[in-house]
Specification:
Protein name: Triacylglycerol lipase 2
Strand content: 5-15%
Radius of gyration: 15 Å
Largest sheet: 2 strands, parallel
Structural class: alpha+beta
Strand order of the largest sheet: 1-2
Number of strands: 2
Helix content: 25-40%
Organism: Glycine soja (Wild soybean)
Order of helices and strands: HEHEH
Number of domains: 1
Length: 108
């Protein structure tokens, strides 16, 4: 198995040109993870193993997987997907920030 070094985790802090203490390092959204990061990770694993991938995603990992699969990306390299605690609906957010985000979410 491979645990991916998703943006914002302690495993992703060795960027080649940006420092985690700079604002530029944090200037990203889950759209970039969908468009770039997950694609690169799938391509790397597939090129190393030449086998279809069994994907396990938790929370944000489910959101980026669903967005990628919906766009038709990665499906040819996918064998199965287990989506744990998926972020599928934002309407149940109850914190002030969560309510603002859920109401302004363009995807719904």
């Amino acid at each position: 198995g491979l645990q991916t070094p998703d943006r914002g985790t302690k495993y992703s802090c060795r960027h080649i040109s940006l420092d985690p203490s700079s604002l530029a390092y944090w200037n990203w959204s889950w759209d970039e993870i969908v468009s770039y990061d997950l694609l690169v990770m799938f391509n790397y694993v597939f090129s190393q193993t030449e086998q279809k991938i069994n994907y396990v995603g938790h929370s944000l990992g489910t959101l980026i997987a669903l967005a990628s699969f919906l766009e038709g990306k990665l499906v040819s390299q996918l064998k199965s997907a287990a989506l744990l605690s998926p972020i599928a609906y934002l309407s149940h957010m109850n914190t002030k920030l969560g309510v603002v985000v859920a109401k302004s979410f363009v995807g719904e």
